[in-house]
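Amino Acid Chain and Its Fold in Token Form
===========================================
What this section holds: a protein sequence and its matching fold, both as plain text.
Structure line: whole-number tokens from a learned vocabulary of local backbone shapes, matched to residues.
Purpose: to set a sequence beside its fold so the mapping can be learned.
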Amino acid sequence: MSMLSARAVATSGAIDTVFNFFMGYRAGVDDMKVRADLTFGNPHEMPLPALVSAIKARMEPQSPDWFAYKTSELQPRSVIAATLSAELGLPFRSEDVAMTQGAFGAIALAFSLLLDIGDECIIPLPGWFCYASMLRARNSVPVPVPLSEGSFDLDVAAIEAAITPRTRIVVVNTPHNPTGVIYSRARLTELADMLTRKSAELARPIFILSDEPYRRIRFDNAAFTSPAAVYPHTLIDYSYGKVLLAPGLRIGYLAFSSEMPEADRKALRAAALTSQIGGGWSFPDAPLQYAVGDLETIGIDIRALQHKRDRLHAALTQWGYAMTHPQGTFYLWGRAPGGDSLTFTRRLAQQGVFIMPGTLFDRPAYFRISLTATAEMIEASLPAFEAAANS
């Protein structure tokens, strides 16, 4: 018998494909032969100077308790409540914000607050590849529901068909990783109306977890509606790591919609603090919390990112690739020539260009490209993409 818990085995099984790819996709490749790494959303240039200055300033102690134990501090929560209210047009309060270690920590907190053993959470397919492992780690059940084929919009009928008496959460990721789709207010309202009806049938609310780490990375002045604006029982997770292109700085938050009934928010507020303590004191480091006011004013150059999107999208479609045209995030999503992403990614890797196969999203006919590479890397990758399109 294994000495490991069934939970640990299930968690590992849900993430093995991604983990193995992460650990080995550049194995045996001479770094000198790498033209472009377009896999994960990691930085390839030095951090934003304003970010470095903000962190340096907040590392300097200003009181004896500067590095004392911190939970969710009032100052960053107040800043976030004000900016979130202005951004989404909803009256958020500081007490409805919990500081977390990035969106990862916020999602983990939401799952811990709402899910019991055996409870179900509907997740999008394709979608972020860590939802399932995080759910398995809590002895909860991931229920993948495909997005609409071709458009990758929310398929409200498919979500409704997947709801059972054990359904507690529907994850909505907008802008969506990996496709870059931003869901319209009309589609979110359709989802909200259905969940309101199903919640009444079950005599308890089904929650939306609105996964919004790319909310501020939008192209062509695309509009954005949070599910919190149309559905009261919504929790929002956010990470500063995306818009700052600094995923190693683990700070984000979980916010409870101001439209949620006061009694429900009060219960979530009280449980969030104790859940984070019981979960291993899962609060952001003190200097990062002090810096939130600065972080709210800093961001990567969206116009430069849009230029990289346009350059690569135009080139790939010219050579016959079927690509989405992302409205947000920093990814491109497309169909692999011949419908085999593993063969396609291996062919590119031989030319020193690395992309993510769709097998990591349970969509083996597709591939994902990260636009966080430098403009020089993108230019260097183009001959390999052209050659692979014609092979």
User: Anything to note?
Assistant: The chain has two domains: 6-48+301-389, 64-295. DSSP finds 14 helices and twelve strands in the chain. The longest helix spans residues 6-24. The longest strand covers residues 167-173.
